[in-house]
């Protein structure tokens, strides 16, 4: 309480005290009965004039406090709150006439994990407030009562619904207008302040958004791993707060275009028509399960001629939808690191969108995606198989060199490189094509856990492809594995082990490399047990198709013919000079051996 408020309250109390002393009626004296019995000291009621004064004191005190705190805006703090809604085929947005701000958003196309309505935010979980800086200090517009006017209007994009909130006192007017178009997840907002004169200290509005994100998925831990704040600078750079830290914050002093509170499958975002001046961002992972994460943003919005425009996005993390909103908004979906994100953004997303037009079962779509990708990569698979077959055919020569130079590893490597050159065989010919296929395998590792297309889609025994298929629930928890058994993950593991066994026969692998092929599937079994069933199913189908392709190639690739080609290359390259690469490699080996002898 400042000095002016204290002085006003003291004067008000003094007036009440003087009135009660000189003008209030005096109660009648109490009469004692002569019997000696004690009579209760009951006071007669005050006069009606005095009683009315007592009843009016709370309102008078409230008015005084409002006058001290809000000045000329005090009349706007008195009123009765009511609800107003905007609705289209995508969502229902509820506002309150107190504050003229969003109090609830329901997405109509989706359900929460427990099959209840998906309430993206409500007044218990989210607080959005706007503050203006006046000569009385920061004033929250959420303290003011507004008159609401609803209707529809025609625009270039079609007919839109709108609600216009107006609050006026004296010459000062505040207007907050919201519009919602059919088929849109965007709520456009225009804020207009007029007639304030010298009441405003600066031309900025402070937006405070505190969102305690509601739980929409059954697996809250997986949801937390995919929830954070994304933001996009006006310079065109996307950034975000850490996904893994329990507490993270950042003060952004550069102009921003948008800020997104991104969950695993849904995003609540605020987008500037022009730009935000700056923002303070904070996210906290709570210890309880009442919310997924607690996200906060304090944003500075500049006013131009007393007006500012922005939009709210409340909708799914569908890559195509987000990309159509504004520049960089699709970054709210994690498509993976740079070297694999291009696969998801330009191939997988478009492939899924195409297949969705003809198939409604996502298990079938996943199978078709595998077949299309494997068909596209088949030339690489064939080349890889032939390369491994060549290495298998020349294995006797390699073994002979190993035995001959078993005491001289450097000489052994040099002779092997010479042999490869003579026979026209490259030791990496079987690995390189496989390496080129890796981006597709890694891309799926990011696509399926973040794909809203898989959400609540069932296939076979999996009730939801976006989470693990708990085929068997265990009465105990296995460290690094969980308290359930995912059947799709088991099938993937078995298929990978079978493929490894088949592959080892093709390559005649020995030593650590042979055993590594069996250890990796076991490791992935532990990792993927709690990942989405769609991912394990994709890898399982991919393994089976690859296994089938190699079995088919084996029928048409004859080791005798490969041997004949190798012998022909041996004769052809008998007098062939060493390539520059071979020469440099041999020189490097000799230098390494010389350094070793010196030591």
| Distance N to C terminus | 81 Å
CATH class of one domain: Mainly Beta
What is the molecular shape? elongated
What's the β-strand tally? 21
From the helix content, strand content and strand pairing, which structural class follows?
alpha+beta
The CATH topology name of one domain reads: Beta-galactosidase, Chain A, domain 5
Give the proportion of residues in helices: 40-55%
Specify the biggest β-sheet: 9 strands, antiparallel
Overall residue-averaged pLDDT value: 81
CATH architecture of one domain: Distorted Sandwich
> What count of helical segments does DSSP give?
15
Q: How large a portion of the residues is in β-strands, by DSSP E?
A: 25-35%
Q: Strands across the major sheet, in which order?
A: 7-8-9-10-19-16-15-12-13
Low-confidence stretches: 1-9, 18-58
From the alpha carbons, calculate the radius of gyration and give it in angstroms. Answer: 37 Å
Organism: Belliella buryatensis
InterPro entries: Membr_insert_YidC, Membr_insert_YidC_N, YidC/ALB3/OXA1/COX18, YidC/Oxa/ALB_C, YidC_ALB_C, YidC_periplasmic_sf
Keywords: Cell membrane, Chaperone, Membrane, Protein transport, Transmembrane, Transmembrane helix, Transport
Pfam family, one: YidC_periplas
Break the fold down into its secondary structure elements and pairings:
Blueprint (H helix, E strand, L loop, with lengths): L2 H20 L25 H23 L12 E5 L3 E6 L4 E11 L5 E6 L3 E9 L2 E4 L6 E9 L2 E12 L2 E10 L4 E9 L5 E13 L7 H6 L2 E6 L4 E3 L6 E6 L3 E7 L3 E11 L1 E7 L9 E9 L4 E10 L2 H5 L14 H19 L5 H15 L1 H16 L1 H10 L4 H15 L7 H17 L22 E9 L3 E5 H21 L4 H17 L4 H24 L2 H14 L7 H19 L1
Antiparallel strand pairs: 1-2, 2-3, 3-4, 5-6, 5-11, 7-8, 8-9, 9-10, 10-19, 11-18, 12-13, 12-15, 14-17, 15-16, 16-19, 17-18, 20-21
Helix pairs in contact: 1-2, 5-6, 5-10, 6-13, 7-10, 7-13, 7-14, 8-9, 9-15, 11-12, 11-13
Main location: membrane
Subunit structure: Interacts with the Sec translocase complex via SecD. Specifically interacts with transmembrane segments of nascent integral membrane proteins during membrane integration.
Keywords: Cell membrane, Chaperone, Membrane, Protein transport, Transmembrane, Transmembrane helix, Transport
């Amino acid at each position: 309480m400042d000095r002016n408020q204290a002085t006003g309250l003291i004067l008000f109390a003094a007036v009440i005290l003087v009135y009660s002393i000189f003008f209030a009626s005096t109660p009648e004296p109490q009469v004692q009965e002569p019997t000696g019995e004690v009579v209760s000291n009951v006071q007669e009621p005050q006069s009606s004039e005095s009683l009315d004064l007592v009843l009016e004191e709370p309102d008078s005190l409230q008015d005084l406090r409002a006058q001290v705190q809000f000045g000329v805006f005090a009349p706007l703090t008195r009123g009765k709150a009511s609800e107003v809604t905007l609705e289209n085929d995508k969502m229902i947005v509820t506002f309150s006439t107190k504050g003229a701000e969003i109090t609830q958003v329901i997405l109509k196309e989706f359900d929460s994990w427990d099959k209840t309505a998906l309430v993206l935010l409500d007044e218990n979980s989210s607080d959005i407030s706007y503050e203006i800086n006046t000569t009385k200090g920061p004033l929250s517009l959420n303290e003011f009562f507004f008159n609401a006017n609803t209707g529809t209007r025609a625009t270039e994009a079609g007919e839109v619904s709108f609600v216009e909130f107006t609050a006026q006192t004296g010459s000062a007017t505040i207007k907050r207008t919201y519009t919602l178009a059919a088929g849109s997840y965007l709520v456009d907002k225009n804020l207009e302040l007029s007639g304030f004169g010298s009441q405003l200290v600066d031309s900025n509005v402070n937006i405070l958004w505190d969102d305690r994100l509601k739980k929409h998925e059954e697996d809250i831990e997986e949801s937390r791993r995919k929830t954070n704040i994304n933001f996009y600078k006006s310079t065109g750079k996307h950034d975000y707060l850490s996904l893994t830290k329990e507490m993270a914050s950042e003060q952004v002093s550069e102009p921003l275009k948008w800020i997104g509170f991104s969950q695993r499958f849904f995003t609540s975002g605020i987008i500037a028509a022009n730009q935000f001046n700056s923002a303070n961002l904070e996210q906290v992972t709570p210890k309880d399960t009442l919310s997924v994460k607690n996200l906060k943003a304090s944003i500075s919005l500049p006013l131009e001629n007393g007006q500012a425009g922005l939009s709210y996005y409340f909708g799914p993390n569908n890559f195509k939808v987000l990309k159509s909103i504004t520049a960089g908004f699709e970054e709210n979906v994690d498509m993976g690191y740079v070297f694999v994100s291009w696969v998801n953004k330009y191939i997988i997303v478009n492939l899924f969108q195409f297949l969705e037009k003809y198939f409604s079962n996502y298990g079938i779509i996943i199978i078709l995606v595998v077949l299309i990708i494997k068909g596209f990569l088949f030339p690489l698979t064939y080349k890889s198989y032939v390369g491994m077959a060549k290495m298998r055919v020349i294995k006797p020569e390699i073994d002979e060199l190993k035995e001959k130079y078993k005491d001289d590893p450097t000489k052994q490597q040099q002779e092997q490189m010479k042999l490869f050159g003579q026979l026209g065989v490259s030791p990496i010919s079987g690995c390189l094509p496989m390496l080129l296929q890796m981006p597709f395998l890694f891309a799926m590792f990011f696509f399926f856990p973040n794909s809203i297309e898989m959400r609540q889609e069932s296939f076979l025994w999996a009730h939801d492809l976006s989470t693990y298929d708990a085929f068997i629930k265990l009465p105990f928890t296995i460290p690094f594995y969980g308290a359930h058994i995912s059947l799709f993950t088991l099938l993937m593991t078995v298929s990978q082990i079978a493929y490894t066994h088949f592959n080892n026969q093709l390559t005649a692998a020995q030593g650590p490399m042979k055993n590594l092929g069996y250890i990796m599937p076991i490791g992935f079994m532990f990792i993927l047990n709690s990942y989405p069933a769609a991912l394990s199913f994709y890898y399982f189908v991919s393994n089976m198709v690859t296994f089938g392709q190699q079995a088919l190639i084996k029928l048409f690739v004859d080791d005798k013919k490969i041997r004949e080609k190798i012998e022909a290359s041996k004769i052809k390259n008998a007098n062939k000079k060493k390539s520059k690469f071979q020469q440099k490699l041999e020189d490097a080996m000799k230098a390494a051996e010389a350094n070793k002898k010196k030591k």
